[in-house]
Amino acid sequence: MDKAGTSNQESLLKLENFLCFAIYSTANAVTRAYQPRLAALGLTYPQYLVMVVLWEEENQTVKAIGEKLSLDSGTLTPLLKRLETAGLITRRRDTVDERQVLIGLTADGRAMRARAEAVPVAMGKAFGCNMDEAKSLRSELISMRDNLVDSIEEVK
Amino acid sequence: MDKAGTSNQESLLKLENFLCFAIYSTANAVTRAYQPRLAALGLTYPQYLVMVVLWEEENQTVKAIGEKLSLDSGTLTPLLKRLETAGLITRRRDTVDERQVLIGLTADGRAMRARAEAVPVAMGKAFGCNMDEAKSLRSELISMRDNLVDSIEEVK
DNA sequence: TATAATTTAATTGTGTGCAATCTATTTGAC
DNA sequence: GTCAAATAGATTGCACACAATTAAATTATA
Q1: Average pLDDT of the residues in A86-106
Q2: For a 10 Å CB count at each end of chain A, is N or C smaller?
Q3: Which residues in chain A, range 92-151, keep a C-beta under 7 Å from any nucleic strand C atom?
Q4: How far apart are CA A10 and CA B114, in angstroms?
Q5: How far apart are CA B30 and CA B33, in angstroms?
């Protein structure tokens, strides 16, 4: 306790010191910053991520996409339906295992890739850090994310 | 172009290289990791942030809280109403400037602070990094967030 | 001092995130 | 081979985020 009677732990409850808030508010800023650049493609940021996953490999299951993006079917199912309505992807049951739904690209969805290449270029500048900084920051975040995911298992 | 006919920009559209996705998925993991620790308090993660802001200083306007958390009234108004219903905060119009709504704490809301001090302690371990790492990562994220915010103005 | 411009919250509508539950299908244990 | 367990996806319900609009109050300006 200091003279004012406040505990040493007080500084732990200050927003200014929160690593979690730095992550949270930066993530919100990322989504907001992408929005005007994705508007030309008619995509939201999570929809853009799904398209990126599909441009890397077509005909993935909902589960596979969900594992890559850490999103569950409650989030993906309606999102994928919107992409289907937009004419960018196809959804069809796997004939071998009918529990699975395979997500493919339409010609429009495939063609969008060329236009999408401008997005990371523009965003790279917006982040305002060089390749090396981005790389080390990315790996630090990912290792922290993995720590957080592991910690949830422990609490349960 | 390489032999396969793919452009050099291809690697820019790989999820694996996305700094934005590292931020996005880590932020989601943060919210998920906080959830079981905040369940005892009956708070969501954004609600917890609002309470932290109010524990630092009572009787702030919605606008002041929004500026600190980078959230607008569309997000805050319903969230604050839920905290009011939960008996943690008070909402009253400023008598001097009736456009403003002052947010205060109830006795219950004030008392919650002591119990909340366990949260950053538990989460500190979950993040799995030491104080210095957390500090530098936080400042890197904040400077990047500021860059992103500035970049949005430029696009508009 | 009228009134136009600005400011503050609230509201509306869309799109996530995620827990919990449900249905259909497949796999496993016996 | 049958039935229980596991798996994949869809559905439901709740709580954000945020753009766009609205309403009320205040400030600025002619």
Answers
A1: 97
A2: C
A3: 96-99
A4: 10
A5: 5
Name the percent of chain B in helix, strand, coil, to the closest 5: 70, 10, 20
B7 pLDDT exceeds 50? Answer: no
Give the pLDDT score at B154.
81
* CATH 3.40.140.100 for domain B32-155: no
d(CA A150, CA A144): 10
Q: Which of A36, A37, A138 sits opposite B19 (nearest CB)?
A: A138
Local confidence band at B100 (pLDDT 50, 70, 90 cut-offs) = very high
Determine the distance from the C-alpha atom of residue A129 to the mean position of all C-alpha atoms in its chain, rounded to a whole number: 20
Pairing assessment for the beta strands A89-93 and A101-105 based on DSSP bridges: antiparallel
Q: How many residues does chain B have?
A: 156
Residue-range domain boundaries for chain B: 32-155
What average pLDDT is seen over chain A? 91
Tell me phi and psi for residue A103, to 5 degrees.
Answer: -105, 120
pLDDT at A71: 97
Tokens matching residue B110 = 């004030």
Query: Which of A24, A125, A142 is facing B30, going by the closest CB pair?
Result: A24
- Tell whether domain A20-119 is in CATH 1.10.10.10: yes
Whether B43 shows a pLDDT value over 90: the answer reads yes
Q: What is the mean pLDDT of residues B92-102?
A: 96
Specify whether the CB–CB gap between B148 and A33 falls below 8 A.
yes
Instruction: Indicate the pLDDT class of residue A104, thresholds 50, 70 and 90.
Output: very high
For the residues of A36-94, what is the DSSP string, one character each?
Answer: HHHGGGT--HHHHHHHHHHHHSSSEEHHHHHHHHT--HHHHHHHHHHHHHTTSEEEEE-
